[in-house]
Design goal:
- Helix content is about 35%, strand content about 25%.
- The protein has about 250 residues and is α/β, with parallel strands linked by helices.
- Strand 7, helix 5 and strand 8 (about 155-160) form a beta-alpha-beta unit.
- About 35% of the residues are buried.
- It is built from nine helices and eleven strands.
- The strands form two sheets. Strands 1, 4, 5, 6, 7, 8, 9, 10 and 11 form a nine-stranded mixed beta sheet that branches.
- The longest helix is centred in the C-terminal third of the chain and has 16 residues, at about 220-235.
- It starts with a helix and ends in an 8-residue tail after the last helix.
């Protein structure tokens, strides 16, 4: 390879115009999602999203590094192309304009309301059953098309975390907490409120979580490669085996 051509390739790689040339390290970002992305006591990332992406990166021949951020920050890093993979977002029309998603999704969530056991709150799936109720919702979360269509008419109390939503609920400052079962179980246990809250039916929605990447040509092949490997892992049972220890449902 002539020196001038090597120099050109290096410059293009630095500018991000030649995707993933020769061992380029992938940067994957996420936030605290129980069962999907968590930091253990030593600060090491683990969870289904981490384990699955490690397998995928190894099969594709890439080293991968994981970094932990607040959810809004993690999304921004991927949207701006400063990170390669966002771990676990739900897929929506609005997010389609910000990211490209590797198909298929790799986990499934039941999105639900929780209420205090000493309350008479209920919901039947209609807007009318939510009127007059103070609802704790988590900043940056998407709750599905039905809930999103109702948002403008609801009394919403935005909180930074699932834990804080339950604290608002228990303090009587919210009537319902809108969250998901996977995130809620460990928070309920940590707060010691298993006998003080209950899950309402019907579910608000069912959402599927994905690996999301920056939009554009530089990440299109990586998106396709991640999707292809995920399909293989689903077909041969490896994804189910990785999910079992975490109790995470698959799509």
């Amino acid at each position: 390879m002539r020196p001038t051509f090597r120099t050109l390739c290096f410059v293009l790689w630095v500018l991000g115009l030649v995707p993933f040339a020769d061992g380029r390290e992938l940067l994957a970002v996420g936030t605290e999602f129980p069962g999907i992305y968590v930091l253990d006591r030593s600060g090491e990332p683990r969870g289904l999203g981490v384990d699955a992406l490690r397998v995928i990166a190894r099969e594709l021949g890439y080293p991968v590094r994981f970094e932990h951020y607040p959810w809004a920050r993690a999304q921004k890093l991927v949207e701006e192309g400063r990170a390669d993979v966002l771990i676990g977002p739900y897929r929506t029309a609005a997010r389609e304009r910000r990211f490209q998603f590797a198909e298929p999704g790799f986990y499934r969530d039941s999105v639900v309301f929780y209420a205090r056991t000493d309350s008479a709150n209920s919901w039947d799936g209609t807007l009318e059953s939510l009127m007059g109720k103070r609802i704790a919702i988590i900043h940056g979360w998407i709750y599905g098309e039905r809930f999103e269509a109702m948002r403008g008419q609801l009394d919403q109390h935005v909180t930074p975390s699932v834990e804080h939503a339950f604290k608002l609920l228990m303090a009587g400052r919210a009537d319902l907490a809108a969250t998901n079962v996977r995130d809620s179980r460990p928070r309920i246990e940590e707060l010691g409120i298993a006998d003080k809250v209950y899950r309402l039916t019907p579910d608000i929605d069912t959402q599927v979580g994905y690996f999301a990447l920056p939009r554009g040509e530089t990440h299109r092949q990586l998106r396709d490669d991640i999707g292809r490997t995920l399909r293989q892992m689903r077909a041969d049972g490896r994804l189910a085996k990785l999910a079992k220890p975490y109790g995470v449902p698959l799509p």
